[in-house]
Amino acid sequence: MGKNARKTSRLNAKSTYRMSSPKEESLATTADVLGKKMQNFPEPSKTPEAGSARVISVVNQKGGVGKTTTAINLGAALAEVGRRVLLIDFDSQASMTTGLGIKGAALREQYGSIWYLLNDPEAKLEDFILKSSVPGLDFIRGHEDLAAAEAAFVSEIAKEHKLRKLLAPVLDTYDVVLIDCSPSLGTLTVNALTASNGVIIPMECEYFAVLGLSLVKKTIQKIKENTNPQLKILGILATMFERKTSHSREVLELIYKEFPDEVFDTIISRTVRFSESTVAGVPVTSYASSSSGSNSYRRLARELIARGGAK
Ligand SMILES: Nc1ncnc2c1ncn2[C@@H]1O[C@H](COP(=O)(O)OP(=O)(O)OP(=O)(O)O)[C@@H](O)[C@H]1O
Ligand SMILES: [Mg+2]
Predict the structure, then answer these.
(1) CA-based, 20 to 30 A from 181: which of 12, 56, 90, 213?
(2) Cα–ligand 1 centroid distance for 278 (angstroms)
(3) Whole-model pTM?
C-alpha cells in the first residue's frame, strides 16, 4: 500500500454506536402479510463456497426507496455471518459514505473516491479500500463529482465496462460486492449492472413505486441483451412497510401478483432506527442490534444466500 493510500485509510469510520434494546420485535414477512406458507431460511455455513465474489447492484431509479440503507445493512448482516463484503458508493450523493461515518472534509476529498479511481488509469482499487466499524465490511468512498460521469464518459469507448474492469482484481478477496446505485438509470447504473451478477430492487410500499418497477426491469433486459447476458434479478425488496396501514399490504399484494417469484419473503418495516443509525454513522445492526430493522436485514442475508444470490 502506498503512502497516499495509508493517508486515505486514516479517514475510516469510528465506532460511535450506542447499545440497543434487547427486545426483539416480530418481523413482517410477505408470507405472513399475504397469508401464504411461512418460510424459514437456515443459518448459512460459516465457510462460504470458494471462488470469486458475487457482485450485486442495489438499483431503483426512484429516489429515497431504501437503496443505500439496504446496501449498508445487508452488507453488515452478511459480514456478521462471516462473509467478506465490499461496498461501493456509486452515487454522487455519497449517502453510503456518510452512513459509514465519513463526514466533513474527509467526505469532500476526491482522492481515493470511486470517481478518482474511475478517472486515473494508474490507480488500483485495492489501494483505496477502507474498513468500516464492522469487521469484514469494507468500502470504497463516493464523491459528489461522480455527478459529472454522464457527461465525462460520453465519448469513451467501452464506457459501460469501466467499473467491471476496476473491480476485477479484488473479486477473489471478497465473497460479496454490493454496489449502491444512484436514483437514475444512466451511465453509472449501466456500469454497475454491467459489472454485476445480480440485482436487488428495493421498493417502497407505496403505489407510485409499483409504476416505476417496469422501467427498472426494462433496463435490466437491455443490459442482458447488450453488455451482460448473465445478469439476474435476485429479488424485489419491499421497504418502509407499515403493518398498520392497508395501503402497504395492498401494494405488497400488487407486486406479489405481478412478480411472485421475485418478491423477497423478507420485508423491511418502517422504523426511525434507520435514520438514527445514519446520523450515528454505523449500520443499524451495530446501532440497534436487536431491533426489528437489524433482524430483518439479517433475515434478508439468510434468504439471499438460500436463494443462491450470495455465497
Ligand atoms: N425501512 C425504513 N424505515 C424508515 N426509514 C427508512 C427506511 N429505509 C430507509 N429509510 C430512510 O429513508 C431515507 C431514504 O433511504 P435511503 O437513503 O436508503 O434511500 P435511497 O433509495 O438510497 O435514496 P436515494 O435514491 O436518494 O439514493 C433515509 O433517511 C433513510 O434513513
Ligand atoms: Mg441512496
Answers:
(1) 12
(2) 10
(3) 0.93
Q: Which atom of ligand 1 is nearest to the CA of 270?
A: 3
Query: Is there an atom of ligand 1 within 6 Å of 268 CB?
Result: yes
- Ligand 1 centre to CA of 67 (Å) is 7
- State if residue 240 touches ligand 1 by the CB under 6 angstroms criterion: yes
Name every residue whose Cβ is closer than 8 Å to that of residue 129 and which is 6 or more positions away in sequence: 86, 138, 139, 140, 170
Quick: pLDDT tens for 289-301. 999 999 999 999 9
CATH of domain 28-306: 3.40.50.300
pLDDT(89) > 80? yes
Cα–Cα distance between 21 and 26 in angstroms, integer?
Answer: 14
Query: What pLDDT does residue 254 have?
Result: 95
Q: Is 91 in the pocket of ligand 1 (CB under 6 A)?
A: yes
pLDDT digits (tens, 9 = 90+) for 32-71: 999 999 899 999 998 898 889 999 999 999 999 999 999 9
